[in-house]
Amino acid sequence: MSRQVACVHALVWVLLYIGTIGADVESTFYKCCQEGNMWAASASSCDSLAKKALASVVSEEHRTSCEITMDICCRATMRERFCDAGKAAARSNK
After folding, report:
1. What confidence tens digit (pLDDT) does each residue in 53-93 have?
2. In whole angstroms, what is the distance from residue 61 CA to residue 90 CA?
3. What's the CA gap between 84 and 82, in Å, rounded?
4. What gap in Å lies between CA 12 and CA 53, rounded to an integer?
5. Which of 23, 52, 66, 77 would suit a FRET pair with 8, their CA atoms being 20 to 30 Å apart?
6. Would you indicate the residue range of the signal peptide (predicted)?
7. What does each C-alpha distance from 74 to 38, 78, 94 come to in angstroms?
8. Domain ranges (residues) in the chain
């Protein structure tokens, strides 16, 4: 599953969860997903996901949902990264 698809899936579930579908909310959660993707690209785990930066990006009412979205997107990106590494290792017989 690509990062974009994972991002969209995360957004849909979060938006359904909070019961709000609006352009501003969707944009906010897209940013949250992108933050999760960027964390996964530079970290070895999503367990210590940096959430302190959220204060300036997300309103208090959306913070928990944003953290969940970040985690979902981070784990999806991490899974894709490890899967690609496994495929590459298998192709090179290592």
Report:
1. 666 667 888 888 888 888 899 999 999 999 999 999 999 98
2. 45
3. 5
4. 23
5. 52
6. 1-23
7. 8, 6, 27
8. 3-91
CA-nearest of 83, 85, 86, 76 to 39 is 76
Residue 1, pLDDT above cutoff 60: no
What letter represents residue 93's amino acid? N
- Tokens (6 digits) for 36: 């999760």
pLDDT confidence of residue 77: 92
CB 49 within 8 A of CB 75: no
Task: Output the six-digit token pair for 34.
Answer: 């992108």
Residue 19 burial by Cβ neighbours in a 10 Å radius (0-12, 13-18, 19+): exposed
Query: Helix crossing, 63-91 with 3-18: angle to 10°?
Result: 160
Residue 18 pLDDT class (50, 70, 90 cuts): low
Return d(Cα 11, Cα 30) in angstroms, integer.
7
